[in-house]
Amino acid sequence: MNSFASLRPAHYLWFALLAAGSFLLAYLALRPQPPTEPLAEFKSWQAPLLQPLAEGRLSLAQLVDAAPGELWLQPRLEGPRLLYRAELAENGRTWAVEAELSLTSEQRQSLQQATAAQVADGEVPLGAGLRDELGPQKIAQLLIKPGSALVAEASLLPTFGPPRLRLQLAAGEAWVYPEQGLTIHLAERQLVLLHWLPVARMKAQLKD
């Protein structure tokens, strides 16, 4: 008996639908995808924040103007650090900001002596008065983390361009942009952290 004779019209319809579905999936897979939009906030932050930091001239006062926040004292074995923490919100996204103030060894030692009792229990917030007093102090490094909204890897290339270096890490990957003083940390194709340094400092580290 011819096996095709046992096929009903409904079977032919099913095969036709299956073939059409396969062609549709293949077309969607091969169709050019629209380009991912860049993260527009980084363009607006370039002049007031990112360019001055890259040039080593971003001050605490400039950062406070862009993102009001708090100054924190963090104890470390090599001497305390001063960290400024705030949030930046734009284009429906919120970003957590942490900046470390640039301190000389003498300033670090003086700060350690003056606050030895305060830091016994860990990090402590410092008042707005001291934050304003330290306004001219330069920023040594800037960390920016995405808030509640996930930021996909695909949006980073149109924002920052192709990286000079790609480094595989124990957990994820790092994209390095020496000319911008930027290192991008990713995990599972999602942005984890943007780490900015003055360009001269980053290039010195890469030489080492």
From TrEMBL:
Keywords: Membrane, Transmembrane, Transmembrane helix
Transmembrane in keyword set: yes
Chain segments annotated as transmembrane: 12-30
Protein name in the entry: Uncharacterized protein
Organism in which the protein naturally occurs: Pseudomonas fluvialis
Phylogenetic placement of the source organism: Bacteria, Pseudomonadati, Pseudomonadota, Gammaproteobacteria, Pseudomonadales
